[in-house]
Specification:
3 copies of one chain form a homotrimer.
Chain A: H1 9-36, E1 39-43, H2 49-59, E2 62-65, H3 72-78, E3 81-85, H4 91-107, E4 111-114, H5 123-134, E5 139-143, H6 144-150, E6 157-158, E7 161-162, H7 166-169, E8 182-186, E9 190-194, E10 199-204, H8 216-228, H9 233-254, H10 258-270, H11 274-280, E11 282-286
Parallel strand pairs in A: 1-2, 1-3, 3-4, 4-5, 5-8
Antiparallel strand pairs in A: 6-7, 8-9, 9-10, 10-11
Chain lengths: ~290, ~290, ~290
């Protein structure tokens, strides 16, 4: 995988076509999400639980936060997708995560791993993330610090926030594709490494206010899971990022402070349409 | 209890009077809620905790989320009502639920059971719901799938969401009145089965956006508990549903997407008045 | 410490000057908060987790909710400040609180204790609060009932809400200064007892709607911790209260019901400026 420099015009044409194909798939995925309203099993953190559920409902999916080890297997068995987030784990949630991940892996149900806070300071969750990676999540997503560190690099983080920029590190995430179909790094621009498309996709949009609202990354992980129930992993990951980027951009046009921005963001997540996706999606194919 | 068909005109008159009596009781209950600001002990899920507390505060009550087994008895002893919600149970919360339910049952304090996700897929909580039902909750509330299944029927659910309509199944809930004073089934219309009124009450209103906001049912359960501290079980249940239905209807007139709707909904929960109740309550007595 | 009666005019002048010094320190602290964006380790309750994180982000800090005992030591070691809130403790969180408090005490990192619900009814958390007080929190904050009871007085509370007024009891908190640098009692007016300033500071502002939004006190505790990472304990405590009081006052000018008030409040927390602090801060030095 090469850095996107010195691109010839024929390559540019190729990319233009590919972007159109992707855009069509995103519209299709969004439509399917509204039709199927897939049941998404979420094991998430105490900060994100309410917010992620509201984002999924607003987007068209049907979330259920089942995070105890006694029901994780039976529920994961019937869910259309699973989202595991390591934000504020408890011992019981950790057990539930392992059980649910094993269950969906055995059944072939798509699942997303969000290794919040991955790194040497937060060892307990990081050990669990390492174990979960070996169960082959369909998609791994996180911020630049988390994903780069998970991929084996030494990167600083600041608590659960990244200290490096997504466009600096996305190529470092390449080794993770040995374990999953798709890796997503969110940041000012989002980068998605896709194994089956053999490409890196860059998504632009959103607003600088998004990191000022807690749990947006966690909710994005849950939304990727929702989309993965209705389309292939790479298109699911791209679709969720495009959905977020457009909603963030349109919300910011209405509100420039965090409280009202977040209200508008949920509105725009819900008010998405095929037309808005076509009009506002900013997708670039790099490679 | 018979299906509400072939009603004679004299029965209609009876019902008209009865509705007026109920409306008066709802206004009275709302007024008492503002005056007494009852302390409501809530053991609820991680998705609903913040939202249910905000709904109770907005409505006039004083919520306290005490969900550990070490303080459940002493706190349940002083609370004016208890709300138990099985959304995302932990082992410690399960212990707290049993202790709190036993405490309030012994003291005669009213309490509400919300068996979120009841059904064969979520066995751990369903077993606990079965045990709690035997402690005779004052009121049992849930969506159509949950209540119908709890009453012994085989109904499909989709995670924690209902797949059947409230008006199809409310009569199936009848056997539950052997264990409680009142059963409430929320949905497009809400149905309340009352033992002491010997009637089924239908509440209309709200908005189609309400199920698109997570934890509204959970917050409704907590609000029923709040009202049960200031009036009889059936009027408490009706009052909470009317309060929600009017707030939902008025909020929807202001906002047609989920984020801003939810903000307006909390505003309208807080801005309720005797006049609004009289003007907007849509209560029908069936039987 | 004497009650502020019979004050001579020379003392009034003294106080006027002191208020100006404090105001300057508050502006400085707010500016530093924006610059340093300190990492704040929060162990908080399920009701407050999302809200407190959003308030800290809006205010300029970088929150991380790390509430398990297995990562509490390593994370507390790198955090710029720690906030411990006893709202809805679990056994694992209780362990995390002790470990984190011991860690920051040993390192000299500032930390805030918020003994939510302290009193004879909620013995488990109150015993923990007593233990944590002996570890010398930098700042202790709570409502009038909690702080007065923690200081050894017999005061009634209503669940987690106060039944006494802050201006009635703030002098009762004096003995707590044997264990900490600063004590803050929030209420209609806020009172801050400072050991190093040898004074009681009164902060006015806010809105009567603030207690109608859940977890505002918890978020205030977390914000005090954030400020304590960038300035001395007393100025940190004052700064956080001033930040809240101004945001509450300005939010109320925009919205008079709880849902929209809370959205505006988050906006105003984020839109704070040195100018607004100078224009709106209502600080009185009592002693």
């Amino acid at each position: 995988m090469n850095h996107p420099e010195n691109i010839s015009s024929s390559q540019l044409d190729q990319r233009h076509i590919q972007t159109d194909v992707i855009l069509e798939k995103v519209v299709e995925a969004w439509t399917e999400l509204q039709t199927q309203q897939p049941l998404v099993h979420c094991i998430t953190n105490s900060v994100a639980a309410n917010y992620a559920a509201n984002v999924l409902l607003a987007a068209g999916a049907s979330p259920a936060m089942i995070d105890n080890p006694f029901e994780a297997e039976s529920f994961a068995s019937i869910a259309a997708a699973l989202s595991i987030n390591l934000g504020t784990p408890t011992t019981e949630q950790m057990q539930a995560m392992q059980i649910a991940a094993q269950t969906v892996t055995a059944k072939g149900t798509p699942w997303v791993l969000d290794p919040v806070g991955y790194g040497p300071i937060l060892k307990w969750r990081s050990d669990m993330a390492d174990q979960l990676v070996l169960l082959n999540p369909t998609i791994i997503r996180g911020n630049a610090s988390e994903i780069s560190t998970l991929a084996g690099n030494q990167v600083e983080s600041k608590g659960v926030d990244s200290t490096v920029s997504s466009n600096q590190v996305y190529l470092q995430a390449l080794p993770l594709l040995a374990h999953c179909e798709c890796v997503a790094i969110s940041g000012e621009s989002d980068f998605i490494l896709s194994k089956d498309l053999n490409a890196v996709i860059q998504i632009n949009g959103g607003s600088y206010l998004q990191p000022k609202v807690t749990a947006t990354g966690c909710a994005l992980g849950a939304l990727i899971a929702a989309y993965s129930a209705v389309t292939k992993p790479s298109f699911a990951t791209i679709s969720a990022h495009v959905h977020f980027a457009i909603a963030g951009k349109l919300a910011f046009e209405q509100s420039q402070s965090v409280g009202s921005f977040n209200v508008a963001f949920l509105d725009e997540i819900h008010n998405m349409s095929a037309d808005k996706i076509v009009q506002y999606a900013d997708i670039q194919v790099l490679k």
